[in-house]
């Protein structure tokens, strides 16, 4: 992209007369900058590293000391707005289909999408939008989970069509994590999707329009259980009557907690958070230090522990540390 075009697109002011006239890509992180890139300097302290890595253009929204007169320096009123303008301009040059969907549907699309399907691009935030610019092609499909963000980037968009719930029949709830059902005369047998999320799963499945490996559902972040023994060591799926659910996305917790209250009435449930949450939906147990979680679970009776504010990978690492030799199950 020409530097002169960038100035026009972002309504920017050129701060110097550079020798370069073209940039190849846009980067937000100085450590990821390569030769020929435009660097968006949200942190002025990162500019030196960006230049060292080969930046051809520095975009700023505050006063800055020019340290390299060979490259271009452009000042704008607001970096976020300038980024939106740049991305929107780039996308407008392609014939694309853009869709907006709920967070839960977006999550299932992300989980089920084949890595080889390069034409289906998922955009949750500005970083995702920047990543796709280098390999965007006509007829690609863009999926957003933020309608206002999508309207800014690609106004010609659609709401993703949801499935007709009346066509979901013969639902068998094997556990709160596993169901069987029929949809449009197709039988789905014991797939790892909660009854709570069947319609969202089917909406994602229909949209993807390709053969899907349902084994990937074990990686879904929606009501994903970790079964543990009485020593709180991880065991295979379904091999214990104790399980943890780690939810990192606060947007899902109200729906999931209410579902657990309705559908898992007889087990003892603990709701553990790493900080106090106002207007919470259940009695919350606050444990700020993740290293104290395992010991607390060992010392307290429970069947289901719903953890909020912790990373899934960190909890897995915690559970698998200092494994005890005895793994008798209740």
UniProtKB/TrEMBL annotation:
Q: Which InterPro entries match?
A: MurE/MurF_N
**Name under which the protein is recorded:** Peptidoglycan synthetase
What organism does the record attribute this protein to? Malaciobacter halophilus
